[in-house]
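Appendix B, record 7
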Amino acid sequence: MTTTAATETTPSTGLDHLEIRGVKKVFGDNTAIERLDLTVHKGEFLSLLGPSGCGKTTLLRMIAGFETPTDGAILLAGRDIVSLPPHRRPVNTVFQSYLLFPHMNIADNIAYGLKQAKVPKPEIAQRVREVLALVQMEDFAGRKPEQLSGGQQQRIALARALVNRPQVLLLDEPMSALDRKLREEMQLELKRLHTKLDTTFVFVTHDQDEALAMSDRIVVMYNGVIQQIGSGEDIYANPHNGFVAGFIGKQNFVPAETVGTESGTARLRTANAIMETTSLDRRPASATGTAGTLTVGERVRAAIRPERMRVAPAAQERPGTNSARGTVMSVSFLGDVIQYMIVVGDNDEILARVPAAGNELLASGTEVDLSWEAEDVAVYDCEDGVPSAEDGV
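Structure tokens (predicted):
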């Protein structure tokens, strides 16, 4: 899918399933969600991603009906559902806590909503069997929640939501309580379920790796504003602003000054290097900023991904353009990748990641040369108050 700029409204199509139109949410003096437009396509796995307090859970709760928008409309299959209470909406929510009834067995937990809706008993039994098979928990129907692991309880929470056959399944950081191994297993489980079902998934997370691994599209949010919408690949490779560049993946931001623009390249001077970049445009610091063409004398932030850095033992000749000399401060062997923290100059810290295969493991204290290509340098505005690369990472 193509990336959609945060300032654009995604055009409506016949496949549109869930539409957020001009939604705003204010709590007293605090604006949690600025006026926001978003379209979720039928059968899509869409993730709302951002640091704590960015508005993603508030948006999910408005879709679910647990919060009412201050302004705007929420349409499901063309019908405005803002006035409908949660139990009248064809959506179900899986929360961070599983909220299973401890006194009921697993089958009764799953069947609870169907019983409240007065679904006939034979149909309840059939649908419970179907969802237990779907989450691969057929043999656990008679057990109590306390007899299950965290991952198994999460599967039952999913089954309880899916048994009602919602048009949209809302997932509010449902794996935050799981350890890393279980989280990775549940990521695969959710993707398997989504592939099998004709259900729209809207998933809230602050974990960028989780969003990248699972989503058809990602909505990056900050301060109640959509910063960028697109596939994980699009957002990682082409962040629209400095916040997205720093939040999705790792990034080296370096203060710089433009000292020349000619022949399709710009030259930037930093405290420790001269850089060339093929980017003649400066991207904004956030979605509320403005882009522009680089001009000589302008102060900016240059950005280079750690995996675009090359690391080699220092040569006798001093490095030139798009290179710098530094000292390895720390080294981490990550299996397929070696990660270096390198100090350049007095105190500039540069993160570099190189493939473990074919590269020598360099010890702390080793003097090294860093190098990179001009096309790997992106340029961003350095306006005051911009979120730093460390925000939420």
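Remarks on this record: The first strand starts at residue 4 and ends at 5. Helices lie at 56-64, 106-116, 121-134, 150-162, 180-196, 208-214, 232-237, 242-247.
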